[in-house]
Design brief:
Pfam families: HDOD. The protein has helices at residues 2-15, 23-36, 42-50, 53-63, 78-101, 109-135, 141-150, 153-162, 178-190, 195-202, 215-226, 242-246, 250-270. The chain is mainly alpha-helical. Helix 1 packs parallel to helix 9 (178-190), helix 2 (23-36) packs across helix 5 and helix 6 runs antiparallel to helix 8 (153-162).
């Protein structure tokens, strides 16, 4: 009964737009909003990135990833890294910082372990989405990368709340479904996620794949299934249609084989 009341409280707060964000998330969110401003000055952006050491390190790592460094010339400065990856990818790095901050203050060791596993899953999904979007599902790769980064924001939010509510996530059946959808939808609003990305993320749980795969949601479905690290919050089973599409799919295997280095380097950059 106590746990049901806790879930009801979180869902009610979400429905009212009263999401509880740690202070660190608010700071990262302000940075993301600044990067979304088309009138932002280049020097102002650079100063903002330099003021956030995690974002600066992750941006340099991404700039040196194979997918952005075809010539093999390493970059050692934040200014050069920003110029190489561009503002769209920098925005995605800021979003990654926002999402990851939800788990940064978790005290419970088991929940911290789940948050770290969820972030590893997220990094792999984002990198795979970038590859799959560009080569299989007719989806803008940059948008797919961004969607992959924020697609588990609701899970991170629940983990952060569970730190103060022991046992909250013991049984996924308690919150999977309508409560998860309400929290994800309101979180997308709070984070100012563009509608096409938000819709794909909110509709992801319970979605089915009908080949041929097209669009952002199908991109995320395939990437989540192929990610080498599973989400610790995922229910048992897999979306309908995935196994039939992925098993013995020579074209998909060829795409992944050709892009394995890019996906691996990109996910490693996100995990910095």
């Amino acid at each position: 009964m106590i746990k049901l009341n806790q879930i009801s409280q979180i869902v009610t707060q979400a429905a009212r737009g009263e999401l509880v964000f740690p202070t660190s998330v608010n700071a990262a969110l302000r940075l993301q909003m600044m990067l979304a401003d088309p009138d932002a000055e280049a020097e102002e952006v650079l100063r903002c990135v330099l003021a956030e050491p995690v974002l600066a390190a992750r941006t340099v790592a991404l700039a040196n990833a194979a997918v952005f460094n075809r010539g093999g010339t390493p970059i050692t400065s934040v200014r050069a890294a920003v110029a190489r990856v561009g503002y769209r990818h920098l925005y995605s790095m800021a979003a990654a910082m926002v999402v990851r901050q939800f788990g940064a203050r978790i005290r419970d060791p088991q929940l911290r372990a789940k948050a770290e596993q969820l972030w590893r899953h997220t990094a792999h999904v984002a990198a795979l989405s970038y590859v799959i979007g560009g080569k299989l599902t007719a989806t803008d790769p940059d948008t797919a990368l961004f969607a992959g980064i924020i697609h588990e924001a609701g899970g991170f939010y629940l983990l952060s709340r569970a730190d103060d509510m022991p046992g909250l996530l013991d049984d996924p059946a308690d919150w999977f479904g309508a409560p998860q959808e309400i929290i994800a939808r309101e979180l997308m609003k709070k984070l100012c996620i563009p509608d096409p990305v938000a819709l794909s993320v909110v509709s992801l749980p319970g979605a089915t794949l009908t080949p041929p795969p097209l669009g952002l949601r199908d991109t995320l479905l395939i990437a989540k299934h192929l990610a080498p690290v599973a989400s610790p919050l995922a229910p048992a089973g897999q979306p309908a249609g995935l196994a039939g599409f992925i098993d013995d799919n020579a074209a998909l295997e060829q795409i992944l084989r050709e892009s394995r280095a890019d996906a691996a380097s990109m996910s490693a950059a996100l995990l910095v």
